[in-house]
C-alpha cells in the first residue's frame, strides 16, 4: 500500500483553509437585476413562466429597483412592454412609453443605482422581430437608425448604459454615434455581442410578449454550434465602441465566456437567461434540488468562467443569501 505524500485535501481541511484558498468570491456587486415594466398604475403581476418575477408598472418598478439597491446590487436592466405595437416599433422611442417613464423615475429616486436599458425592437414591433422588414425581409441597415433613436430616447430618459440586444450588424457604431452627436458621450454601450439563437429565451418571450409572429431569429442571432464566430462578433463590437460585452445565454456557453475573457480587455457580462432560471425554479418547486445551493454554485461558476457581471433573475435572492 502506498501512502500519498502530496495531499490536495490539506487545502480543504477546514472552513478557514477553504476560505483562504477560494479563488472566486461571489458578491452582490457582481449582479444585475432585470425588471419588466408595463403600462398602468399599481400593476404587479407574477410572470407565470418566471415564478418570483413580475410585470410592474413604473412606480412599482422603482420599489423593485430600491430593493436591489438596498441589497448592494449596483445595477438593474429594464425591459419595457409598450402600450402599442406597429411595423416600425415606434413605441420603442416614445418618451411616454413605460420603459422611458420607469428609467426617469428610478434615476430620480435612486440616482446612484446604475440603470441599464435593453435596446431592441422585438417587444415593440407587431411582427416580434428585432429589426424592421422591407420586401418581406429583415432589413438590417434600415433598422440601424431606429435602434439609434431608441437608445437615444433611453439616454434622454436617464439611462446610464444602453444595451443593444438586437444583433443587427453595425448597431453599436450607429448607437455610439447617435449618442455622441446628441451630447451623450458619457453614456456607455453594453452590447449583447455574442448572443445565440437559443431555446433558453422561451420564458422571456412570454415575459416581454416578444415572440416572433413568424419564422425565428436564426438569421441574425448566432448559431449555438459556433465559438470562433463569437470572438469576431465581440471584436467588432469593441471596435465599434462597446464599453462592455455580453455573452448570452450563460450556462451552456461557459467556454465562450472564458474565451472572450481571455481574448479582450473590456468587462465581460454573462446573461443567465430566463430558461436557465425557469428550470431551476421548476426543479426546486418539485423538491428535486436545493435552490439556494444550485443558484450560488451556478453564479459562482459563471463568474469563475470569466464574467465579472452577471445579469440574473436570481439577483435579489442571491444577494440575500450572500
Ligand atoms: C430582446 C431580448 C431577449 C432577451 C433579452 N433581450 C429575447 C430574445 O432575443 O428573444 C432574452 C432574455 C432572457 O431569456 O432572459 N431581443
Describe the structure.
- The protein has helices at residues 15-21, 58-70, 98-109, 140-157, 171-181, 202-207, 228-239, 254-263, 274-285, 291-305, 315-321, and strands at residues 31-38, 44-47, 50-57, 75-80, 114-119, 133-134, 137-138, 161-164, 188-195, 244-248, 268-272, 309-312.
- It is α/β, with parallel strands linked by helices and 322 residues long.
- It has one domain: Aldolase class I (TIM Barrel), CATH 3.20.20.70.
- The strands form two sheets. It has an eight-stranded parallel beta barrel, surrounded by nine helices. A two-stranded antiparallel ribbon has the order 6-7.
- Helix 2 crosses helix 3 (98-109) and helix 4 crosses helix 5.
- The longest helix is centred in the middle third of the chain and has 18 residues, at 140-157.
- It is globular and about 75 Å long.
- The model has no long low-confidence stretch (mean pLDDT 97).
- Bound molecules: ligand PBG.
- Ligand PBG binds at residues 118, 120, 122, 130, 165, 201, 204-205, 273-274.
Q: Please describe the biggest sheet, giving its number of strands, its sense, and whether it closes into a barrel.
A: 8 strands, parallel, barrel
CATH class: Alpha Beta
Low-confidence segments: none
**Widest sheet: strand order?**
1-4-5-8-9-10-11-12
Supply the number of helical segments. Answer: 11
Q: Which CATH architecture?
A: Alpha-Beta Barrel
Q: Please trace the helix and strand order, writing H or E for each element.
A: HEEEHEHEEEHEHEHHEHEHHEH
Indicate how many domains the architecture comprises.
Answer: 1
Distance between the termini: 44 Å
Task: Name every ligand kind in the structure.
Answer: ligand PBG
Secondary structure tally: strands:
12
Large-scale geometry? globular
Helix content: 25-40%
The radius of gyration is: 20 Å
User: β content, as a range?
Assistant: 15-25%
Fourth CATH level, the homologous superfamily:
Aldolase class I
Amino acid at each position: 500500500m502506498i501512502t500519498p505524500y502530496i495531499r490536495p485535501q490539506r487545502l480543504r481541511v477546514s472552513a478557514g483553509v477553504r476560505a483562504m484558498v477560494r479563488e472566486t468570491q461571489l458578491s452582490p456587486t457582481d449582479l444585475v437585476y432585470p425588471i419588466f415594466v408595463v403600462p398602468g398604475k399599481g400593476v404587479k403581476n407574477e410572470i407565470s413562466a418566471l415564478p418570483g418575477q413580475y410585470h410592474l408598472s413604473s412606480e412599482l418598478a422603482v420599489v423593485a429597483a430600491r430593493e436591489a439597491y438596498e441589497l448592494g446590487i449596483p445595477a438593474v436592466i429594464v425591459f419595457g412592454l409598450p402600450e402599442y405595437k406597429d411595423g416600425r416599433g415606434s413605441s420603442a422611442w416614445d418618451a411616454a412609453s413605460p420603459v422611458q417613464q420607469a428609467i426617469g423615475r428610478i434615476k430620480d429616486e435612486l440616482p446612484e443605482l446604475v440603470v441599464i436599458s435593453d435596446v431592441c425592437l422585438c417587444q415593440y414591433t407587431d411582427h416580434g422581430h428585432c429589426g424592421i422588414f422591407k420586401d418581406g425581409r429583415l432589413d438590417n441597415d434600415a433598422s440601424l437608425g431606429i435602434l439609434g433613436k431608441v437608445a437615444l430616447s433611453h439616454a434622454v430618459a436617464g439611462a446610464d448604459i444602453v444595451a443593444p440586444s438586437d444583433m443587427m450588424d453595425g448597431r453599436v457604431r450607429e448607437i455610439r454615434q447617435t449618442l455622441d452627436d446628441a451630447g451623450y458621450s458619457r453614456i456607455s454601450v453594453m452590447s449583447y455581442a455574442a448572443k445565440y439563437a437559443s431555446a433558453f429565451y422561451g420564458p422571456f418571450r412570454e415575459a416581454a410578449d416578444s415572440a416572433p409572429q413568424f419564422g425565428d431569429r436564426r438569421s441574425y442571432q448566432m448559431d449555438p454550434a459556433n465559438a470562433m464566430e463569437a470572438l469576431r462578433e465581440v471584436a467588432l463590437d469593441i471596435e465599434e465602441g462597446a464599453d462592455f460585452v455580453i455573452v448570452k445565454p450563460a450556462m451552456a456557453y461557459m467556454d465562450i465566456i472564458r474565451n472572450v475573457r481571455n481574448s479582450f480587455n473590456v468587462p465581460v457580462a454573462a446573461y443567465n437567461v430566463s430558461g436557465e432560471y425557469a428550470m431551476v425554479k421548476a426543479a426546486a418547486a418539485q423538491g428535486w434540488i436545493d435552490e439556494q445551493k444550485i443558484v450560488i454554485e451556478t453564479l459562482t461558476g459563471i463568474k469563475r468562467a470569466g464574467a465579472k457581471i452577471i445579469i440574473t433573475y436570481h439577483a435579489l435572492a442571491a444577494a440575500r443569501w450572500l
